[in-house]
Amino acid sequence: xxxxxxxxxxxxxxxxxxxxxxxxxxxxxxxxxxxxxxxxxxxxxxxxxxxxxxxxxxxxxxxxxxxxxxxxxxxxxxxxxxxxxxxxxxxxxxxxxxxxxxxxxxxxxxxxxxxxxxxxxxxxxxxxxxxxxxxxxxxxxxxxxxxxxxxxxxxxxxxxxxxxxxxxxxxxxxxxxxxxxxxxxxxxxxxxxxxxxxxxxxxxxxxxxxxxxxxx
Length: 216
What we know:
216 residues; alpha/beta; Rossmann fold; Arc Repressor Mutant, subunit A; five-stranded parallel β-sheet; 5 strands; 13% strand; globular; transcription regulation; Response regulator transcription factor; phosphoprotein
């Protein structure tokens, strides 16, 4: 069973998401939160698989909550909720450790599938959306320099794998492209997350875009 905490200050949004996710036999919304502080409390209490986090809430906002949740031992996948698919606030959430983002207008059938994807540890973010977000970064040049510094110590094969993460590819897809065993790719990814100090694949993929490794 995939357990979910929904954090949004709009009761109607929470009710809408609960209804949609509750229609899936393998997903259960275990708690709702009205702000970031309450979201952190519910995560500690229920240890969910996935958190759907509104970014713009009064009091403790979603970004702060994401930072706190991702700092917990074995944190859940946190997916940022936004009204706009190019919200500049989203890139900060990804850097803070969010596994991706969903637009609140996402069709119900897609929402259920994407929650399952997040629970499996995969990126909930299209490559085109990632490129838009990187382009919208207000401190892009500084981030590019920092990203290149952080990736400078990678081997050529690690850089290839990281570039694939930037495209949103799964381990199986990366294995096929680079002619590697899937277990080998998994080992590369795990090692790189530690080496790059990234919380998850999404954060590493964003770093790949900022370092100029995608599409090279």
